[in-house]
Amino acid sequence: MSRPLLVILLSIAGAGSIVLALVVGTYPISVLQVIETIVAPAPGVVHDVVWQLRAPRVLAAFACGGLLALAGALLQVLLRNALADPYVLGVSGGAALGALVAMLLGAGDTGVSFLALAGALGSIVVVFGLTFRGGDWNVYRLLLTGVVLSAGLSACVSLILVLAPQAQVKGMLFWLMGDLAYAGSPVYAWLILAVLTALAVAQGIRLDLLAAGELKALSLGVAVTPLKLAVFFGAALATAAAVTLGGAIGFVGLMAAHAVRLLGVSHHRALLPLAVLLGGSLITLADTAARTAWAPQQLPVGVLIALVGVPAMLWLLGRRN
Amino acid sequence: MPGVLSCRHLRLQVPGRMLCGDVSVTFEPGQMWAILGRNGCGKTTLVHALAGLDRAAGAAVELDGVVLANTPRRRRARDVGVLLQQEETEFWGSVLDYVLLGRFPHADSWTGFSREDETRATQALETVELAPLSARRYVSLSGGERQRARIAQLLAQDPRAFLLDEPLQHLDLQHQARVLARFQQLVRDERRLVAMVLHDALWPGRYCTHALLIYDGGALASGASREVLTRANLERLYAAPLAEVSYDGGSYFVPHV
Predict the structure, then answer these.
(1) Between helices A252-262 and A301-318, what is the axis angle to 10°?
(2) Which pLDDT band, with edges at 50, 70 and 90, does B218 fall under?
(3) CB proximity B111 to A under 8 Å
């Protein structure tokens, strides 16, 4: 697929998924009404439902997907491993532990978000501290440290699930599968998404070079160590922001960048924003289905993402070039 | 436009092993060097040090009297280019995309690659006879074609000094000759410097003006080819008997078996 066509299609998908998510819900609102209240907000029930109930969650969903897609694409470059996803560094494990401890203590939504963020940042610091020595990184050690830390954290999470009172377990499982019901204000996430995407695109050619090999990048004049540090912290921050909003939503972070590559775009200047659009649209659509398909019962968005995303991805993989 | 690459008291070492305690050689523009030695003697380590890729080499390597490590990175990449022996990863894009990466030291990192960069990359692909494959995915190339794409990337980089680590690997005879002829042309017509690691006792005598032999134990011999590339030196270097072949007014060596 040509690049301009892909840009147009994914931009439409991004905007369309947001509008659709604002339209669909228990209270009936038409597409025209949604567009009207976006363009010229006027007080009324429609305005309140769109702006106060639906918009925060929809925008959180989109930001979450964009951040995970960005983090996954960046880590695939940093670790030069096609299987890298935002969670390989243990960031989600830390966030999960924080969130579950907060739920166990009976903290509200804000408390859950806060401890999830603290857990995520904590594991970033631990992974960085254990692996960055003498001004350089061995990416295998970085990867292994992340995997080992994740295993430890997931054991703690299992322990909490076993010991927690029955009434709290369902909420915990929802968080672990990815759930946007607890999402706080998406403003910071959008800010982080916009800034990180812009920075990453500006470094796009350097990322192409880093993906081609550290020594090659160095020989062509890239400051490899500072770039790797920036990629690590950028990806870690994006992941922390995403899991704080929506829990450990899987699949998108691993697959968004691969899907864009399979559609024929490999330059990071184009790949990164396209992956952000794809990831954002996917989670927005999945979350819309999650809160309406079985209403009033809500489904965890992470499960729906995988249910829709896995067949799509398998189709892309099976296509002949 | 000079471009004198020199090392003074350079130590070649890999973790846990000292290969050569003191390498002092001056490589001048208009010279084509062969770097010869047995496996594991430090040839690649030397190439990396000369290319400024080895931080430990530090102040021992100079370009036109300026310590290479102190030169801004992208300027260094315009001065010294290296063909690595191994690439660490697969590249997802097309062959042309791959060759274009070589233009990074010349490109504006904000606006990306220009028309001129694309022209240079295409020309480089024509030089190695890969132009018909330029739209193919890099990963779909054969081993020899990849090696030619890597050479094209270095030609597109267009540095003053070329350091080549086993440039002929995977290439068929015709392409070996073409690649060497292209580098010889750069040395003769544009007074570039070429220094290459070879594993062959035949090509150096044919194309190289100078040679650097790294013996086991770290002893060196360097100088003009006709003085250094003698049967006695090469038999000592490879610890193997050689036969001398006279051809076209020169003498060359092949393994005596």
Answers:
(1) 30
(2) confident
(3) no
- Give the contacts of A266 (CB within 8 A, at least 6 positions apart): A208, B92, B93, B97
Interface test with B, best of A219, A225, A265, A267 (most B CBs within 10 A): A219
The answer to whether the CB atoms of A219 and B84 lie below 8 A apart is yes
Degrees, nearest 5: CA angle A59-A61-A64: 105
Compute the residue count for chain B: 257
* pLDDT range class, residue A1, cuts 50, 70, 90: low
Tell me the CATH class for A3-318: mainly alpha
Rounded to whole angstroms, the Cα distance separating A155 from B102 reads 47
Helix (H, G, I), strand (E, B) or coil at A216: helix
Count of alpha carbons within 13 Å of B116, Cβ hemisphere only?
Answer: 7
ipTM score here?
Answer: 0.92
User: Could you write out the three-class secondary structure of chain B?
Assistant: CCCCEEEEEEEEEECCEEEEEEEEEEECCCCEEEEEECCCCCHHHHHHHHCCCCHHHHHHEEECCEEHHHCCHHHHHHHEEEECCCCCCCCCCEHHHHHHHHHCCCCECCCECCHHHHHHHHHHHHHCCCHHHCCCEHHHCCHHHHHHHHHHHHHHHCCCEEEEECCCCCCCHHHHHHHHHHHHHHHHHHCCEEEEECCCCCHHHHHCCEEEEECCCCCEEEEEHHHHCCHHHHHHHHCCCEEEEEECCEEEEEECC
Burial (CB < 10 A; 0-12, 13-18, 19+), residue A256, is buried
- Contacts with A48 (C-beta within 8 Å, 6 or more apart), sequence order: none
For chain B, list the domains and their CATH numbers: 5-89+157-255 (3.40.50.300)
Q: Where are the domains of chain A?
A: 3-318
How many beta-carbon contacts under 8 Å exist across A and B?
A: 70
What is the per-residue pLDDT across B51-60, written as a single tens digit (0 to 9) for each?
999 887 878 9
For residue A180, the model assigns a pLDDT of 85
CA distance B63 to B53: 14
Name which of B92, B37, B77 is nearest B217 in CA terms. Answer: B37
> Do residue A205 and residue B93 have CB atoms under 8 angstroms apart?
no
What token pair was written down for B124? 């480089």
Q: Would you call A321 an interface residue with chain B, using a CB distance cutoff of 8 Å?
A: yes
Residue B34: strand pairing partners:
B196, B211
Is residue B74 within 8 angstroms of chain A, CB to CB?
A: yes
How far apart are the C-alpha atoms of B72 and A220, rounded to whole Å? 11
- Best CA proximity match to A232, nearest among A224, A244, A222: A224
